[in-house]
Amino acid sequence: MHQAVIAATGLFTPEQSISNEELVIAFNRFVELHNERNAQAIAAGEMEPLAPSSPEFIEKASGIKARFVMDKAGILDPEVMTPRIPERPNEEISVLAEMAVKAAKQAIEAWGKDVSQIDAVLCAASNMQRAYPAMAIEVQQALGIEGFAFDMNVACSSATFGIKTAADFVASGSARAVLMVNPEICSGHLNFRDRDSHFIFGDVATAVIVERAEDAAPGQGWEILGTRLKTVFSNNIRNNFGFLNRAAPEGIGARDKLFVQEGRKVFREVVPMVSEMIVDHAGEIGVDPHGLKRMWLHQANINMNEMIGKRVLGRDPQPGENVIILDDYANTSSAGSIIAFHLHHDGFDAGDTGLICSFGAGYSAGTVFVRKR
Question: Any idea which residues carry the catalytic annotation?
Answer without folding.
Answer: 156
